Amino acid sequence: MARTAVRKKDIPVEEELELSPLVAPVLANAEEQGLFATKESRVTARVSRKLIDAAKARTGIRSDSELIKFAIAQLALDDPFRRAFREVGGTVDPSLDLEF
Fold first, then answer.
1. Spatial distance between the Cα atoms of 23 and 62, rounded to a whole number of angstroms
2. 97: number of CA atoms within 13 Å, CB side?
3. Which of 2, 23, 38, 86 is buried most deeply by CB count within 10 Å?
4. Which residues contact 17 (CB under 8 A, 6 or more apart)?
């Protein structure tokens, strides 16, 4: 059965999903670091449709290619919070007032 590509311009505006706030910064950071400079590799995989649909719902991304691009960029980029958390050993300054 042949699949027909649906381009964003073919999707009515009211049907477009709003992107999650975590998507744009990741893609912008990857772009700034030159990670999207060229496209010389192709990725193919067989994965659960439920997994793809859940990821698209969480991110607001509609395209499989954009979803994969986002996921790989997120893995490729340095996470300063994770590194900083490791450096402090997961501790919190005892003098910090955590009560509201």
1. 12
2. 2
3. 23
4. 56, 57, 60, 61, 62
Place of tokens 């910064």: 25
Helices (H), the chain: 23-32, 49-59, 64-76, 80-87
**Residue among 75, 78, 55 at smallest CA distance from 65:** 55
- Cα–Cα dist 67/59, whole Å: 8
* pTM, entire model: 0.65
What angle, rounded to 10 degrees, do the helices at 64-76 and 49-59 form? Answer: 70
pLDDT value of residue 98: 83
Do 58 and 20 meet the contact criterion of CB atoms below 8 Å apart?
Answer: yes
Average pLDDT of the chain, as a whole number? 82
Give the CA-trace dihedral at 28, 29, 31, 33, to 10 degrees.
160
Number of C-beta neighbours around residue 34 at 10 A: 8
